[in-house]
Amino acid sequence: MKPRVLQHGRLMPGLEQALAEHFDLHPLWREAEPKSFLAAHGGEFTGLATSARFGADRALIGALPRLAVIANFGVGVDTIDLDAARERGIAVSNTPDVLTDCVADLAFGLLIDVARRLSAADRFVRRGDWPKGPFPLATKVSGKTLGIVGLGRIGAAIARRAGGFDMPVRYHNRRPVADSPYGYEPSLTALAAWSDFLVIACSGGPSTRHLVSRPVIDALGRDGFLVNISRGSVVDEAALVEALVAGRIAGAALDVFADEPKVPAELCGLDHVVLLPHIASATRETRQAMADCVLANLRNWFDHGRLLTPVA
Ligand code: 8YV
Q1: Against a cut of 0.85, is the pTM above it?
Q2: Is the CB of 106 under 6 A from ligand 1?
């Protein structure tokens, strides 16, 4: 008998297929009445496959009384109620490492885009504005200071890329990282004041909610740029929008938002803002590696009782 695994939300077609080959997979997203389905069948499932987008809240975990393992497609587990999982001894895996390079690459892409105004210049050419006069001057990247909020795997990969641009790096974390070559800044406001570019690379969830607050945004100041590839919840989005509209910071490049896929309407008209639809890990190579990781975790759990990449 194959283990019965519930699939919450759509996953990559190849991953859905592979999961269906190895497990007795049931797509919850196909149910017209998921609540009544769970009330009738919740007790049949021992595994749950989900993604950072759909997660697993306390209600869903509670509706699956025999659940033993949750495999998340994504490194961020802020949409999974880890307390609820822990209380029941449910194992949780994510997809770290395999997406680090792509997310760090995109952070740098965003940083260069917002400073050199690549997307704005592209719009300028497409609008037919070039013959009317030159595109306004932008901001130099190389040699500028880079502040990183969260020096985990992704933050460290962003810092390494900064070396290629001769950018001095400092970081803010809950605590200093042992043997880090970068300067630790215990105050995020002080880091923002020092930074030409402030890149958010910490994890989401309640502990980092609105960490980038109005005072932090104001400390970044008129010449500072904010880049976010982490979670929209880390930034006080209303304060950010206000600062951008008023020109109190130089610009922002955002891959993530507080209420995805909704983007504050005020931002759409601003040329000093770069807006992406949460694509930091979205390359064929990385998404395939993430899919492989989800499958490998579930197979390993059901075959050997161990996860390959458990969430601590
Ligand atoms: C994905 C992500 O967009 O890894 C994460 O935490 O946010 C992204 O890689 C996501 O997992 C797809 O739902």
Answers
A1: yes
A2: no
84 alpha carbon – ligand 1 mean position (Å): 21
**Start-end of H helices in 5-149:** 13-22, 34-41, 58-62, 82-87, 100-116, 118-126
Q: Is 10 touching ligand 1 by the criterion CB < 6 Å?
A: no
What is the 128 CA–ligand 1 centroid distance (Å)?
36
Q: Give the pair of three-digit tokens for residue 107.
A: 């952070």
Question: Of ligand 1's atoms, which has the minimum distance to the CA of residue 279?
Answer: 3
76 lines ligand 1 (CB under 6 A): yes
Residue 39 has φ and ψ, to the nearest 5°, of -60, -35
Lookup: tokens for 98: 């395999």
Q: Which residues contact 174 (CB under 8 A, 6 or more apart)?
A: none
Environment class of 61 (CB within 10 Å of its CB; exposed 0-12, middle 13-18, buried 19+) = buried
Tens of pLDDT, residue by residue over 126-140, are 999 999 999 999 999
Categorize the per-residue pLDDT at 206 as very low, low, confident or very high, splitting at 50, 70 and 90: very high
